[in-house]
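Known limitations

Files may contain more than one protein. Parsers should not assume a single record per file. Below, a two-record file is shown to illustrate correct handling: read the sequence, read the token line, then continue until end of file.
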Amino acid sequence: LYRIGDSCTNVISPLFNYLPIILAFMQEYDEEAGIGTLISLMIPYSLIFLAIWSIFAMIWFAFGLPIGPGTPIFI
């Protein structure tokens, strides 16, 4: 479950490793784009991604499927 929350918020974190690269590509099209522009554009995608992953996890738990080979859901 940690990876669900982590993967959804990576792009809106100022500590994201690829932030300078994404900003460089953004500034090719909009020279005034900055970190705030990137975060404000990515928040809707991040929230939708979080909702979809959460629903997927709930379905996974409801069916009692293992999370990996030989690994049960509950300890």
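...continuing to the second record:
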Amino acid sequence: MASKYYANCMENLAYDKKVLEAAEKRKGQKRRNKPTRLDLELNHQVFRGLRQESQIRRYRSYHEYPPSTTPMASLQPISISDLRLETHHCGRVLFVHTFGNPVLCMAIRNIVEDVNGDVEQLAVYNTPKTATLKHVLPGNCVFAIKEPFYEASEDGLYAIRVDHPSDLVQLQVTDALFPQKFLPQITEPDKSAIEYKVAGNAAFRRKDYLLARHLYTQALQLSGPADELTQILLRNRGVANFNLGRYEEAETDARASIVASTDMTDSKKVSLDSKALYCAGRAAYELRKYQEADEAFLSALKLTPNDPDTMREHNRCSRRLYEQSGGDYDFEQMSQSATKTHRLDHADFTSNVAVRSAGKRGRGLFACKDIKAGELILCEKAFQACFASECNASLLGEINTERGYFDAAEGLVFDTIDKVRRNPEAASRYLELDDGGYQPKCPPTLVDNTTVVDSFLVRAIILQNCFKCHNVRSSDHYCYVTPGSPDVEARSAGIWIASSYINHACVGNAFHSFMGDMRIVRAVRDIARDEEILVPYRCTDIDHNDVRKILKDIQGFECDCIACVAETKTPDAQRAHRTKLITDITAFMSAQLDRPGLPNKHHINRGKQLYRDLEKTYDGDNYKNVPRLGMIVLGSWLCGIQRTFVCAKETVHAAKAVMSHAGFHVEVKQGALVVQRTNACLDPCVTGIVVIAAHAYVQLGEIGIAEQFMVWAREMHVTVCGELRGFDKLYPKLAV
């Protein structure tokens, strides 16, 4: 499946590249055929009739241009007739009026006219999945497009393209730059601060928090600097900001609204201050500032000691501080809470690791203490995650380098841009991640009271750091879902900031799993203090040549772990023979999975012959003490089948051979299980082999050794799945 996924990425990127190369030839030209209003309205109707759920959305980048950081008043107006194709019009601003209804087709689109009556299509990209069309690009409204980009779009039409949300500004009639041409014939009389407040409250009750925020802001501009109305408006706007996910602004507004009266007999002021502290605490909690949040809740409880909501939030905050300090999680409860759309409520545990220089790999994550095999290294909530169940298939691609992801990554881009805009200070850690050398760098900046975020920078960081995760839980993937079903093939994606610094090695010393939007990393073997944490990004069940190509084309690097070094030292003819054998083995294994009951003797002998042939392609010199990753899947199948036909001693021998191929060298000394894991590669198949060995030792009457194997199997299962759930479903208990 990985090869098919890779091929889909490359095929779609190649198509986009052809379209964009054709457009590039017209760069700097004016549009030849000027459209009429009727032309655009008819084309717009076509967009409205398209079924969005059937489309693969492509976010492709060819011309990367920075967002406008110039105040609107300093930009020179431009008209539609002066726009040039495939050109970023720096230093200019285009004023337009929308005269259609917005539609979603690759972007949010509407049709617009400028002050001269010329018309064109406007396409706004990088809006969050939850954004409604009427809020982004409503009809009969006036917009300023700062430093517009004019494109010949992939649908054969033309569009004024907006990639940076801050480049599109909706104007109000009261704005100084509102074009005279678009002024309404009848204007509303000026409103007072109280009238704006009443209108804001009405919008809030309708859950139109964006409008409520705007109206409260209008009211604040008319109210006194520190009167009672100002405190009420700040408090109301703080709650509106909280509901919009603007937690930094919510906390600022809430704290600014506090009167801090020393008169505790004024019950109204005390109650209002308590509510403000509660809002500030909730905002700090969402920003993952748990200590600050707890202090706000404690201050609120001093004012209103018996408030149940504040007590509940204080207790919730205490649990997060407990998780954060010691990594003590209730993984069973975490697993039960995980659903396809539920974001989990847990703190990050990252005190075991630190970011340091990793030489040619850039930055890496290193152990701050000795960590035992199976021990929790870190547990982290996603900065942003997008589950495949929440959005359609999409392609996030970088045309110039032909790198891309074919999954939920596009939705991840949109939501991450929105999150960075809403909370730029909290997003600073995200913007410190590797961006692949993207230039020029434009940090979030406040211009015209709007946070300017470079969408291409956010996207570049995602291309470097985005990681695929299972739809709900890793244990579902390994234990509860039929291979080949949509839940297995669905490709969710996320960004985990601390975990993003973990570099890849096919033979790593750690393994990660997922529960909802939590990423859990455990040690595969003992890790020494100051040793770099490495995890495999790849599967072990596909040909190594494919793996290296995928890592290079999609991840953008070449692996130099011991398995990859051994592979590159192998002669080309030998590697080609191994590739053919793995293709044959894949077909053989697929046929066995589809066949009911146990395989017959012919099929078993065929499997043994393929196994022997494949083993010969791993020569002893290059692969001494190096995992032979291609052997694991077929070896596991043979071991599982043969245990019903051979004696227990032979089963133990076969199981140890498969463990050895995975880098686990097992011995039993004086009744104790000894596992040497220096170059171990934790493949999920190996857990089942350890269980088979345990049952064989029961047949040999060595119960103590069998129980030690089962303890090890449980440890491996938890490392692979993040929890013990599913172990008893997959593996039978020991018959002792």
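Parsers that stop after the first record will miss the second one. For reference, the second record is described as follows. The chain has a mean pLDDT of 87.
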